[in-house]
Design brief:
This protein is an alpha/beta fold and 249 residues long. 20% of the residues lie in helices and 24% in strands. It has a nine-stranded mixed β-sheet, sandwiched between helices.
């Protein structure tokens, strides 16, 4: 396999909801319960990923219109090349917080978070050939690394292969929302599924949920899973771990 092993990890309500209200990422919602197992630290201890894959929707609320950027100040041929400066790569001793953002929605406050727990982790954006050039120019000015993988949108399969070839990534943990998880699932790029079930039910019809993806047609089969483990955690939480197998039909 020319790509890393991919594990999706989410905390979700018992009905699979990843948020409490539509368009409100949990990082901006004080009602969402904090992790009882140190969140990302728990993921890093158990899996030691080189890449954490997060969706852009985790950083910007639904319907968010980012502020305009100055026009691109470099030729398109330059901007559409990968940008991973050696000095930043040398500081990414732990790994890369990697975010597909072909639409250029996220404005980055930090490229390395000022938190001791995140020392050695750097932001890496996945872009596409259609990503606005002014956004790619902005990333370069801010010193935010990026890879261009895909034409109209980020090609996740090509991105995973590039992450392994370029950074030696053997394990990727995708902690993004339902759209990112759904895209990985439909592309056959998920090897394991982890869900930390929270003792609450949310309901709703448009609130973010696990694996948001196009509906299966009548001939398509669901993705088969094999139980790897069940761990009871404090506060009524339960961690479920599954390996992805062949379709169940």
């Amino acid at each position: 396999m020319d790509r890393p092993r991919v594990i999706t990890h989410n905390s979700a309500a018992v009905d699979g909801r990843l948020a409490l209200s539509p368009g409100t990422p949990i990082m901006f919602d004080e009602r969402w319960p904090s992790s009882g197992q140190d969140g990302y630290a728990d993921i890093m201890r158990r899996h030691r990923p080189r890449i954490l894959l997060e969706g852009s929707g985790s950083f910007v609320a639904g319907g968010h219109e980012p502020p305009p950027l100055p026009p691109a100040d470099r030729p398109a041929a330059t901007l559409l090349g990968d940008f991973v400066p050696d000095e930043i790569a040398a500081r990414a001793t732990k790994g890369w917080l990697t975010v597909p953002d072909s639409g250029g929605r996220v404005r980055w406050t930090y490229k390395e978070y000022p938190d001791e727990a995140w020392a050695g982790w750097h932001v890496l954006v996945l872009a596409a050939a259609r990503t606005p050039l002014d956004y790619l120019a902005y990333l370069r000015r801010e010193g935010v690394s990026y890879l261009v993988v895909g034409e109209e949108r980020v090609d996740l399969g090509a991105a995973l292969a590039a992450l392994r070839a370029r950074f030696g990534a053997e394990t990727v943990v995708a902690t993004g929302g339902g759209r990112l998880g759904g895209a990985l699932l439909r592309a056959g790029l998920v090897d394991e599924v982890e869900v930390e079930v929270l003792p609450m039910a949310v309901g709703g019809t448009t609130t973010a949920a696990l694996f948001t993806a196009p509906d299966l047609d009548r001939e398509a089969a669901p993705t088969g899973l094999r139980l790897l483990g069940v761990e009871e955690r404090p506060g009524g939480r339960v961690l479920l771990r599954y390996a992805v197998e062949e379709s169940t039909l």
